[in-house]
């Protein structure tokens, strides 16, 4: 607990010494917080000369990777932030303060069991190529093997980062518990489940062997694809805290001026970004969930038919068949403006309680979504749309789906990417044909044929065994049937015995009551004694039957 209090104090002190409280309009803050700020007079803003964006970026950097990643996500939402703040937060994508290159070299040598870095690599650069929140990368060339001479990058996890992450996550879990108990929307928003999902995602990112496996899977999914190229991972040189992969030569997707100067077809590039997203989600059920601009590059080859280059695969998302189906149907219904279908799907999937009035929910969705149709990204204020959608969700008790948090974050990245590259992009018309084709493949005759093809090897293997399995099944049924008959006979006998016991118990109770009544009304003694004797006799019979 003391550790959490200490971390909470550090966060509050960081926010105040960088003057982040001054960025938030005073009218948005409760009176208690405004008074509390005056009480913390020993924590003045020490960076008044810096811009608001620079103060926010530096504060997030100083708090560590959990907060840096939050800033990375915000940096893609230029429609929600002033330009100066968005530009500063964009520096968090690959310009985080580096740790010493000599220390990185020692970590690499220790992880790979090298006496010296030159035993495996030539031209190792002590100066990092890029530095991010979790790790930083250095350039080198492979020295041995079939790929000797290949240019590579070596990714190294920051030293002693786990303790800071654990402290922040514990604090977030505590805050989530408080929100779940005290916020009116706490149960619906599921803050504890969201933080739990975030914990898993962030800790997975600390394991570079896991990232290497993700990269290999994504590369296989997009083998020979014109949409996306994934660099080769050299698994022999990869460990939990070190990963070696092919060095790519691309243009950062955020460098729009260079892309324009090279004559890159921005319309095709933006449309392919949408197609990459939907292909990963609905075809592969395995998607890159950290697609901020620092992790996406554009190939220098063939600018008229551009393709993407992807890096940093520490965070990936998956969807089960049911969630994927509901999402596809929701998207299609939304693109077709079938708001009734959208409302019904939310109820059927359990995302909205069954007692909600579907007609009212349909009307609310139409009110939010209809104004943004047939408009390019440049003309859509997603800030207003998100606020309205949140208010609608709260009104109709729609629960947050923790398994979809990564997907929602990735969709925000894709939308922000499209806004940067080609603001005239019609997101709806770009995505609709792809989803319609996917749904036809899932529901039509093609789905039946594909299912038969997928299961054919299994049935071909099991078919010769079917006669034996059928014979064994029929043979086993006779003993089971006899056992069931014996069990039923025993149950019937027990029921009959129980019925007789109940009968004797009823007679005994009746005689006891009769004896009492006769005695109270002062009837002849011989009659009272006779009734009592019969009651005792019936009680004895009942006791004997019960214990026999």
From TrEMBL:
GO cellular component, one term: plasma membrane
Entry binding sites for ATP: 129-137, 155
Regions crossing the membrane: 502-519, 525-543
Annotated active site: 290
A Gene Ontology biological process term: regulation of ubiquinone biosynthetic process
Pathway: Cofactor biosynthesis; ubiquinone biosynthesis [regulation]
Membrane topology recorded in Swiss-Prot or TrEMBL: Multi-pass membrane protein
Enzyme class: transferase
Ranges where the ABC1 atypical kinase-like domain occurs: 91-346
Domain of life the protein comes from: Bacteria
EC number annotated for this UniProt entry: 2.7.-.-
Any one Gene Ontology molecular-function term assigned to this protein's record: protein kinase activity
NCBIfam families associated with the record: PRK04750.1 (NF003404), UbiB (TIGR01982)
Purpose of the protein: Is probably a protein kinase regulator of UbiI activity which is involved in aerobic coenzyme Q (ubiquinone) biosynthesis.
Family per record: Belongs to the protein kinase superfamily. ADCK protein kinase family.
Name of the protein in its database record: Probable protein kinase UbiB
Gene for this chain: ubiB
